[in-house]
Amino acid sequence: MSPGLYERLVDRLLEKRLGDLESASVKVDRVSVDSAELPFLLSRYLEKRLLSALRTLSGESPDNLRIAFANRILALMAASSGESPLELFSPAAMLVSVPPVSSGGFSVLEPPLTGLSESTLLTGAPDDPSLASELDKEIRSADRIDILMSFIKWSGLRILRSALLDATDRGTVPVRVLTTTYLGATEIACLDFLSSLPGAEVRISFDEHRTRLHAKAWLFERKSGFSTAYVGSSNISNPALTSGLEWNLKVTEEDQPGVLEKIRGTFETYWNEASTFVPYSSEKKADVQKILARSRNRDDSSDSLPFDIRPYPFQQEILDRLEVEREVNGSFRNLVVSATGTGKTVIAAFDFRRFREKRPDATFLFVAHRKEILEQSLKHFRHILEDRNFGELWVAGSRPVHVRHVFASIQSLDRAELDRISPERFDYVVIDEIHHGMAPTYRRLLETLKPRILLGLTATPERSDGLDVRRYFNDRTAAEIRLGEAIDRNLLCPFHYFGITDEVDYRNLRWERGQFDRRELEKVLTGNDLRNRSVLRALREYCPDLSGVRGIGFCVGVRHAEEMSDLFNRAGIPSIALSADSSREVRDAVSARISSGELKFVFVVDLYNEGIDIPAVDTVLFLRPTESLTIFLQQLGRGLRQRWGKTHLTVLDFVGHMHEKFDFSSRLSALSGQPAYRIQKEIEEGFPHLPAGCVIQLERVARAHVLENIRKALSFRRHGWLEKVRDMTADLNRPPHLREFFRAYHPPLSVLYRKEGKVFRGWKRFLVEAGVFPDFADPDEATLTRGIGRMLHLSAGRYPDLLMAMAGDDAVKELEGRFPERQFLMAHYALWDETPEKMGLERISETVQRLRKNPVLCDELEEMLELAKDLALFPVLGTSRTEDVPLDVHGTYTRNEILAAAGLFGFDRRVDVREGVRFVPEAKLDLLFVTLDKSEKEYSPSTMYEDYALSDRLFHWQSQSTTGEHSPTGQRYIHHRETGHRMFLFLRKKKKTANHPFQVSEPYVFAGPVFYRSHQGSRPMNMIWELAYPLPAHLFRESARLGVRM
User: Where is the PLD phosphodiesterase domain (predicted)?
Assistant: First the structure.
């Protein structure tokens, strides 16, 4: 066998050949097959063998032999499944059409020349039918047509005009079109024609100068089951359809059902993404014409907002977090951290709109330091609040008249003005660029005003002077827009990050209070000619054309910055050094000189926030190790601003032998969007999971340095965390609570909870190990630690309230009156995982008494529940609780808790449910358990497109393979409204909670009741459920795997 990559099931013949190779000392890699993928792999294996066997059959009547052979296989399959056998007729015949009846008799359906069963590639080769002629036939024979085009020209659309008119004239062929305003290429006449077709709808993405939609696709749905799709390079224009050198892949449902299902699901998800695609109508024609004209002229002057005023999903996640902070944690001073240009002001406007709905008379103050920011923010608020008279400016001589909704500059709110304002004058206060908050004017404002809600917005919570504005926000960040989300939304430009091998050895430098000793660091980085030459060499290697480069280099000190500037100037690269001591005039001049290209690089010290903001920057050099992740991201953000013509940011990070306490994994986690525990695997696999358009590459030696650092950090981890808890105990003069420790250090759960053999150890045992808590001997420590360690998913609602009360000292009788019995059963199975009867209990409430015999673990349970509130990503709809099944919509529960709530786990029995569905006939209830990632593999195309969200209100679900549309189960699904049956949907991402020390199953989010919308196919049925409550934005992002990057 040839060396290389394979993906082939091992049969007896192959195993023998592999054994021979291994005998010859050749390395052979085998992996176990994931059970979720095995059916697909086996069918692919059998398909090739069957084709080979059928071809080799010969004789007087080979066709009869082949049909007989096929019938024997069908009979064997029927015997295995218990179904009636299928049988092919001889001689073989093929059904090609059942023509529809029209007023003039039967309509003639002409199939495309490429057929309906076999996928093919059209390249414009001499023997290929033209794309236009094939599309014409596909249109005329389809039952529904979906079109996805980045732009549409009349020169191409008129070629298909007759076919579209004929198809839609039948009145039963819906047409849906998705397109964009990118570069103004789409013509308004095309939108008018398409939207005028009977049963047609057109939706537009208003991408004026940059688009995420480059796709060109057609989907032709047929009720016969022979749907087809075209995906390729051809937009709808005359050259693209007729004469261009275009490649287009035709996919058929018959031979590529998985691919076609992904196309179908992706289109459906785009179609339902209301914040991206807006319906077109004649009423919007004038506005669309203006946008198209502006796009053609590349005019960036207008900042008009789209027609729709819904938050994007990533913005809704921030709003959800703010709601949790206020409603669950009682925190009304909230800090939102996000890079410049990511729409922080828009989030504030949506948040105030929500606040104003409950308090229509709410007063409002928005504070910023520049008139331009205030004017732009006022415009956003008026649009989102749908109130063109909202707000007054208080800046540059303009004073408000009514002083109810004010947009004020910080300069206007001087001491005299603040003294005249009542501290309670404004209900809701927003302070933009709150990192200025340590300045006297801002500090006075923050200490004077007492609003109901204070919202701070910043890209840079950590300042160059070491001060941190979080002190005004309960010492925490309420919500943060992740880097990958902003890039996926085109709010920031993509980065190309290169880890460059650095000769400097940092391992023995002094490390104090989380950072290098600055003097030692500057000493090893200055006067280092070898390293300086390496910096220049790397720059020229990764940016060979320096004519268009605009860069920032981050240095450790003034001497280092000046040395780098001198080095670059001598190399013919115009540069300058800046520090916090540089005057404002010099800084402003440098910004203009960099933007114009007069200077190529500015080397800075401690100017990562308000000191330098140049959108033209397209290259960042990290010339010193940056210990703080926050500061690293702030510095990176200086180059991520969008600008016309800027396609990406180049990042050169110089990676040497790093100190064992330096944290590489967190920065690579922030860049990649992957959790820190996965970073080693991401490095080894070449970072396959990155935000759109981004690249991370590590040079060979740099890669070795990073991996060595991560492995050493793992070995250092536990000792380091024990030191942290000792330090915190000394500062507080008592052991920290679990939530306090998490807020301060964000440790992975695997540090605090672990399994040693069959013994489970938790937070209180960790404190004992650190020597800050006395040893204890709770009788049920091992069992309860395992239960408590699985409760991080609980956030709010009556059930967590019961657990909190059980750990307290409320009378048991009082608890029995406040909480339903099934919630006691939920709590029991969460803590003990066996029936109350088997434990010798006589009534379920005795589980409270058993728990309270473990006082230390009761305290730990309370602390875990408080932490869970802190970590909640979205609010629970407690008011939506069903009467007989005590679950809160959007609450998170283990399978045992759900089964106890549904009555399947009782006092003396438990019904194990391993399938993805469970029917509870006595309750007229179906429980639909959905695991989004069915395979343990990171990417499994054969299983990942079965269950997914189409929108926050629609969910695509695939039934079990034995469920047919005419079976009792299928009929119950379809007609559940009429029969009074309820369908409850539960969602989780994976089978196992990632990196959990106890290897526990991942809990489910209760998405709430769902209702039948439609279905396709049978055995399995592909169903669309309509949700009673919209999915939280975070859960939608997790489950909308086919849509626009959210």
Answer: 209-240
> Cα–Cα–Cα angle for 563, 567, 568, nearest 5°?
120
Q: Is the peptide bond before 91 cis (omega within 30 degrees of 0)?
A: yes
Tell me if 313-481 shares its fold with 490-665. yes
313-481 adopts what CATH topology?
Rossmann fold (3.40.50)
Work out the burial of residue 240: count CB atoms within 10 Å of its CB; fewer than 13 is exposed, 13-18 middle, 19 or more buried: buried
Could you tell me if residue 250 is left (phi over 0), alpha (psi between -120 and 50 degrees) or otherwise beta? beta
Are 24 and 52 spatial neighbours (Cβ–Cβ below 8 Å)?
no
CATH architecture label of 490-665: 3-Layer(aba) Sandwich (3.40)
Q: Between the CA of residue 147 and those of 22, 144, 231, 268, 973, what are the distances in Å?
A: 53, 10, 10, 11, 31
Average pLDDT over residues 398-411: 94
Tell which CATH architecture fits domain 110-296.
2-Layer Sandwich (3.30)
pLDDT over 80 at 609, yes or no: no
Q: State the chain's maximal CA–CA distance in angstroms.
A: 107
CA gap 632, 642 in Å, rounded:
19
Residue 462 has a pLDDT of: 64
Cβ neighbours for 269, distance < 8 A, ≥ 6 positions apart: 948, 949, 950, 951, 1040, 1042, 1043, 1044
User: How far is Cα 577 from Cα 293, in angstroms, rounded to an integer?
Assistant: 43
**Strand positions, DSSP E, 672-792:** 695-698, 754-756, 759-761
Angstrom distance (rounded) from CA 457 to CA 344: 7
Domain boundaries, the chain: 12-81, 110-296, 313-481, 490-665, 779-875, 913-1046
The correct CATH number of 913-1046 out of 3.90.1150, 3.10.350, 3.90.1690, 2.30.280 is: 2.30.280
Verify cis geometry, omega within 30 degrees of 0, for the bond prior to 1020. yes
Locate 359 and state its tokens: 């308090």
The two structure tokens encoding residue 404: 């109810």
The predicted-structure confidence for 831-844, as pLDDT tens digits, reads as follows 998 999 999 999 98
Beta bridge partners of 250: 120, 230
- Cβ-contact 213, 182 below 8 angstroms: yes
CA distance 670 to 152: 38
- 184: pLDDT confidence band, cut at 50, 70 and 90? confident
- First-to-final CA distance of the chain: 44
Report strand pairing: 619-622 vs 551-554.
parallel
**Residue 480 contacts by C-beta under 8 Å, 6 or more apart in sequence?**
336, 337, 338
Q: Which of the four pLDDT bands, split at 50, 70 and 90, describes residue 307? A: low
Q: Is 750 exposed, middle or buried (0-12, 13-18, 19+ CB in 10 A)?
A: middle
Task: Specify which residues 6 forms β-bridges with.
Answer: none
